[in-house]
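Module 6 notes. Inverse folding takes a fixed backbone as the condition and produces residue identities as the prediction. Think of it as a translation problem where the source language is geometry and the target language is the twenty amino acids. Below is one complete input and output pair. Work through it position by position during the lab.
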């Protein structure tokens, strides 16, 4: 398990490479939920998501000799872009192994950051190719289940507490759990009374199924929130959530989509469903908040295309 000290060290290391993103109060949502609501705008991080924080931190832990061998990762989404950017700026080669079904905009963006993309027909072959490259000497980076990735993501928690010392609640989406784990450790270390809500969408409930089973389980993700599409949740994230199981929230794809449309139209934010699900969870829990609470919704990514919005609307019959 990472510590607050790990996260604080990560912040110093990655500071030259990442943005400190804005935390701003949203008047419309504050009125709607009858409390104080803030948006942590991590979708304006470099590459459009929180992933560079951990990607830079992982590569910075490698020796100069290791970096000469390059890095490889498996991702069909935001980690691919974060890793590509980090590798380019830290002068190491990067290969990202992706399934052939990866949306075009993710492939092109990853290539644009300087990474080489290798496509395989299915996830099993994607992982086989990554393992092969690891055996050949490439350094394998993990998109979520890595202490360095978690510590990098946890720097968001430090920023939230510093920018909003009176924070009472933070909503964080869960894919593989690295983001949730990092932020939960950071906030617990600084303000242990803050409720850190973990949010998933139906069909990508790796945490929900693990909580019920009492252990990490493998799933086949089926949610429209593709960037929550991890096959399992990290053990560290599960251990943290098991301390506060009442702070787990499951929402539907439709709820996440409706929240995304609201954020697009009212807040002018083009979010992923993996980010808008935090608003969907807050809507569901509105009776939980007191007037004097200070509720933060983490908007973790904004790499959504018009094509995907249309696809989601068609699937949901909107």
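Target side of the pair, the amino acids:
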């Amino acid at each position: 398990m990472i510590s607050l000290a790990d996260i604080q060290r990560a912040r110093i290391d990655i500071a030259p490479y990442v943005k400190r993103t804005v935390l701003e109060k949203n008047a419309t949502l504050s009125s709607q939920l009858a409390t104080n609501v803030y948006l942590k705008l991590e979708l304006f991080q470099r590459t459009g998501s929180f992933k560079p924080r951990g990607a830079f931190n992982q590569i910075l832990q490698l020796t100069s000799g290791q970096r000469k061998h390059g890095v490889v990762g498996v991702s069909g989404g935001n980690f691919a872009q974060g890793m590509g950017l980090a590798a380019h700026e830290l002068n190491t080669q990067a290969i990202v192994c992706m399934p052939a079904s990866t949306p075009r905009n993710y492939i092109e963006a990853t290539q644009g950051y300087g990474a080489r993309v290798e496509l395989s027909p299915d996830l099993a072959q994607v992982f086989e190719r990554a393992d092969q490259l690891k055996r050949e000497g490439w350094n394998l980076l993990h998109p979520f289940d890595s202490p360095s990735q978690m510590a990098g993501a946890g720097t968001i928690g430090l920023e939230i507490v510093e920018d909003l010392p009176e924070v009472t609640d933070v909503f964080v989406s869960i894919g593989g759990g690295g983001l949730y784990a990092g932020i939960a450790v950071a906030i617990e270390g600084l303000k242990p009374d803050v409720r850190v809500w973990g949010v998933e969408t139906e069909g990508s409930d790796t945490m929900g199924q693990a909580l019920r089973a009492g252990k990490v389980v493998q799933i086949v993700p089926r949610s429209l929130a593709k960037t929550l599409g991890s096959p399992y949740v990290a053990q560290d994230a599960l251990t943290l959530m098991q301390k506060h199981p009442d702070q787990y929230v499951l929402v539907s794809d439709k709820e996440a989509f409706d929240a995304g449309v609201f954020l697009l139209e009212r807040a002018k934010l083009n979010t992923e469903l993996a980010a808008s699900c935090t608003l969907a969870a807050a809507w569901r829990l509105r009776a939980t908040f007191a007037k004097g609470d200070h509720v933060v919704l983490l908007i973790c990514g904004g790499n959504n295309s018009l094509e995907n919005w249309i696809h989601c609307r068609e699937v949901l019959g909107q």
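Reference fact for the lab report: The mean pLDDT is 95.
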